[in-house]
Amino acid sequence: MSFFSFGQSAQIDIVLNDAETRKKAEHKTEDGKVDQYFLFYDGDTVSGKVNITLKNPAKRLEHQGIRIEFIGKIELYYDRGNNYEFVSLVKDLAQPGELTQSRTFDFEFTNVEKPYEAYTGQNVKLRYFLRVTVSRRLNDISKEMDIVVHTLSMYPELNSSIKMEVGIEDCLHIEFEYNKSKYHLKDVIVGKIYFLLVRIKIRHMEINIIKREMTGTGTNVYHENDTIAKYEIMDGAPVRGESIPIRLFLAGYEITPTMRGINKKYSVRYYLNLVLIDEEERRYFKQQEITLWRRGDVVRKSMSHQAAIASQRFESSSSDEKALAHAQAKEQ
Amino acid sequence: MSDPTVADTRRLNSKPQDLTDAYGPPSNFLEIDVYDPQTIGVGRNRFTTYEVRMQTNLPIFKLKDSVVRRRYSDFEWLKNELERDSKIVVPPLPGKALKRQLPFRGDEGIFEDSFIEERRVGLEQFINRLAGHPLAQNERCLHMFLQDESIDRNYIPGKVRQ
């Protein structure tokens, strides 16, 4: 950062007030590493202390102002020049002047809106972070601290099953059924495949979960398909009248909630792909979209009031509040 | 769904399978044998034919049991017809072996026993892979190849309707 060893520099540390009690969540970085970050929900207050430690205790640190920002932004990997900040809050910590000794500043961003879930994808990244900047004439000193945001939903009121008959005329007819169309991230996909007509030689059948990330608009549209899971559900040749059960536990896979048109910049959608493979390696498949959502964790007594508001903010209705209250009561 | 913390993983209801379906013959029976190579003719006008026997219970084929005699160029004709008319990726044929047809060879060339056996195996794999393809089964040329006495090269290409 600063190549000159003369002059003064400082080390910035950001410490949250609830660092002891706040939960952490795992999140993948752009280069694939998995790290732990503090977990926040929509409406949570972000408060803490900024410690500025002078590197050379004898000298003074002249500055043009010290401020802290809370930023939520979307980064498109192919368009890094443009900044899409959908949340941008600033608090001034110090007016232009000088620091004669190391100091600690308090900050609080009250009930911050965090409308979208933090996401690191193949062509796009949405992140929330605190940034402290000590402005100086030649070069600023800054420090960033990333946080992770999860968006919660309530149990959907309407969750119809998916049931369809598909096939190739006079060759293969199947009826498939999945018990729901909306699954939470720790849910189980329960279904069945019923064979009505089998005139091809099937060797095995599998079900795949496909994640499709769509970024950009207009001429710059990128589609990334990723097979998150491959799960064999049948080995061998079925005949007419046979029913094959499906039971696929989602908790073991790296999945996120379905995201549609986030800030009109990107979408992340999930599909179940049913694949039948015959003896000559020919593949017959049927893709079906499912909606994934994040269920609020079991509510503990010490849960803050803000988080309670946040998890009720989605699909709020009197029956949903009753469901949340019921879940809270059960665990206490 | 009484307890929201434990997932309901019970199987979905399904109709019990009819025992005649469960223990009956499968409706996907299709077997084609390529065997009995015979070299016909003398000298430079010799060629080898193979017996192609198809047994099936697929309703799209008119005959459930058929036997015809075909030579390598007939298989080539079938491959070309399907590559032109259908959208499928046609499996590969065993090699044309042009080098074996040159003069001054030490062995019998394309009438060598080991070569004929190699070719027979390749042709059998080729026709089985092809005949099982649902899109190939719609083509008139495949049915003519497998079940007509001889191939009419002036036929009108088209699809088969059940």
UniProtKB/TrEMBL annotation, chain A:
Residues 319-332 have a biased composition (Basic and acidic residues). It comes from the Eukaryota. One of its GO terms (biological process) is intracellular protein transport. Residues 310-332 are annotated as: Disordered. The keyword Protein transport applies. Keywords: Protein transport, Transport. Gene3D superfamilies: 2.60.40.640. Belongs to the VPS26 family. This is Vacuolar protein sorting-associated protein 26B-like.
TrEMBL record, chain B:
Keywords: Acetylation, Lipid-binding, Phosphoprotein, Protein transport, Transport. Residues 28-152 form the PX domain. InterPro entries: PX_dom, PX_dom_sf, Sorting_Nexin. The keyword Phosphoprotein applies. It comes from the Eukaryota. One of its GO terms (biological process) is regulation of protein metabolic process. Residues 1-24 are annotated as: Disordered. PROSITE patterns: PX. GO terms for molecular function: phosphatidylinositol-3-phosphate binding. GO terms for cellular component: early endosome membrane; retromer complex. Pfam families: PX. Belongs to the sorting nexin family. This is Sorting nexin-12-like isoform X1. It comes from Salvelinus namaycush. The gene is LOC120062346.
